[in-house]
Amino acid sequence: MPRRPAHFCNCGRIVAACSRCVCQQAADRVRKARHDRNRPSARERGYDRDWQRERAAFLIVNPTCKRCGAQATDVDHIKPHRGDRWLFWDRRNWQALCGHCHDSHKQREERHALKCEALV
């Protein structure tokens, strides 16, 4: 199977296929830090001791990832609650996911949904 060739970054460096340039990684860190400054803490968003207790109980009852069947480590809100306390605590809106599915597939879907909402 052929491999993708290296490419040039906008800064002029040669970057291996499927990699990001040092300048792109630095720009990502700056962008994420800027976003985090404006974001409330996990506790302020509702992820407190009560959430940890309910999360642990949910994972005991639902030990496998809803997507791939691996060991579940995260409780995900199917529909993002966006600060709605009722939706946050609605167990019908929870699903057990492994770390990989939660951090990659699910986050990508939510970003795509936000872009679609912005277009409407």
From TrEMBL:
Species whose genome carries this gene: Hansschlegelia zhihuaiae
Pfam families found in the cross-reference section: HNH
Protein name as catalogued: HNH endonuclease
Domain HNH nuclease, residue spans: 54-103
Keywords: Endonuclease, Hydrolase, Nuclease
InterPro entries: HNH (IPR002711), HNH_nuc (IPR003615)
GO molecular function: endonuclease activity; nucleic acid binding; zinc ion binding
